[in-house]
Amino acid sequence: MKVLKTIILLFTVLITNTFSAQQKDNCRYIKTPTGYLMVLRQGDDVISNIENLAKTENIPSASFTGIGFASEVTFGFYDFNAKKFNPKTFSKVEMGSLTGSIARNEKGPSIHVHGVATDDQFNAFGGHILSLHVGTGSMEVYVTLNDQKLDRKIEQPLNANVLQLNCKQ
User: Fold this and answer.
1) Which among 110, 122, 125, 141 could disulfide-bond with 66, CB atoms 3.0 to 4.6 Å apart, if both were Cys?
2) Where does the chain have alpha helices with state H?
3) What is the pLDDT of residues 99-157, one digit of tens each?
4) How far apart are CA 85 and CA 81, in angstroms?
C-alpha cells in the first residue's frame, strides 16, 4: 500500500510539472516599449506565429528582425516571367539574419520575410522566405511597431504583393 501511495504521489508530481512546463511554453511574446519580443521554440512555425501576433494584438504595421536556429527554411526566388516563386529548402541551419514587415491586405495580416541562413560549413543562403520552422534551441524575433496602418496589394503585370504608401498626409 505504501509503494502504491508513493507511485501515485510521483505520478501526480510528474503530471503537475509537465502541465506547469507546458503553461510556461505557451508564452511566445511580451510587450516592449517599441513593440514586442517573441521567443519561439523548437518546431514553432515562425511566419504563422508572427501572423498570430499581428492578429491578436491588432498590429496595423510593423517591421521585425530575428536570429536563431531553424530546422527547415524554404527560400523562394521570384521568377518574373512565370510570376511565381521557385522554392529551395535547407535543413538544420542558423538564421544569421531575419528581417521583414507586417502590413495588411483584404484577408488580414500580410507578412513579408527575407533572411540569410548558414549551414555547418558556413555556406550562406538567402532571399525571400516562404516557410521557416525553429530548430533545436530558439529563435528571437524583435517586432517594432509603426504608428500607421500599411496595406499590401497585388500589382500587375508582375503579380507581385507590394506595400502601399499613403503619401497624402
Assistant:
1) 141
2) 2-25, 46-56
3) 999 999 999 999 999 999 999 999 999 999 999 999 999 999 999 999 899 999 989 88
4) 10
Nearest Cα to Cα of residue 116 among 63, 51, 50, 67: 67
Instruction: Give me 41's grid cell.
Output: 521554440
d(CA 105, CA 59): 13
For 140: left if phi > 0, alpha if psi spans -120 to 50, otherwise beta; the answer is beta
Q: How far apart are CA 123 and CA 89, in angstroms?
A: 14
What are the DSSP E strand ranges found in 106-123? 108-118
Domains of the chain (ranges; CATH) run: 29-164 (3.30.1330.80)
Maximum Cα–Cα distance for the chain, whole Å? 79
CB under 8 Å to 144, separation ≥6 — which residues? 34, 35, 62, 63, 64
CA distance 51 to 76: 19
Alpha-carbon span 33 to 99, nearest angstrom: 20
Three-class secondary structure of residue 128 per DSSP:
strand
